[in-house]
Amino acid sequence: MKEMCQLFLNRLEALPFHTSVGLILFGSTVKEICKPTPVLEHLRDEFDSIELNGDTSLFDAIHIATATLQEYCKDHPKIRKRILCITDGLDTSSEVTPWILASVLQSHQIVLDSIILDKGADNPDLTAVSKSSGGFAFAPETVRDAIKILELDTMLSLFERPELKPQKIEEQSDFSVFRNLQPDKCASNNLPLKINPIHSKKSMTLSAAVERFVPDNSLGRRSYLLIQLKQLSGSNHPKFDIFPSYDDLGFWKIIMEGPEGTPYE
């Protein structure tokens, strides 16, 4: 555990991400060791104090981390907020329930990423809370696999991944949908999505694209795309919204409303 945390700090310091990190330890009780700070060296000695023992107040610890982030945001209102939880995934003594915690994370727009070690991977609650927040939930089989996950750019910065908008949790039945989801996979041929630079480029409505791009007399790709855009702009689909790129006629952003009863509804 200590090695994983130290390597995570090393990666953060080596890359140009402007990140503040705090530390909360939990066992039978929850203890805030260090408030969020951009000076990562302050955390190194604290990692040496990590010990694994006692009961597990997992969800209470995440709840307290949420309050800590909200307090930090008073002076840093534009930051994106994330909690990284490394745990065996089991909870034996928390007072807050998973579905209430999931609702709180959503209301404060806090992403929870979890690395679930050992037998806790069979417990669906932490995976559900993570995914309902728009975060990852990994269940690596070895410490080496866990270290590889922590080295991913998508785990080092929220700005390196697509922003997800899961189904809103307003009551316990909403949370049950997420309990059916499995932990994320991370292999050389199956890495978490990383945001493509083109995704951040300016886009526009279908009608604006039809006006912006002038047709030519050729029968090539450009003319074909313009024909498709005109057809789509005249037949609005109730479940799809399409936004072509401002600079690239062939790149479209599509917002889709998922089927009823799924997290993407």
Automatic annotation (TrEMBL):
Signal peptide range: none
InterPro entries, per database record: UBC, UBQ-conjugating_enzyme/RWD, VWF_A, vWFA_dom_sf
Domain of life where this protein originates: Eukaryota
Residues of the UBC core domain: 220-265
Pfam family membership, one: VWA_2
Name of the protein in question: UBC core domain-containing protein
Species the sequence originates in: Arcella intermedia
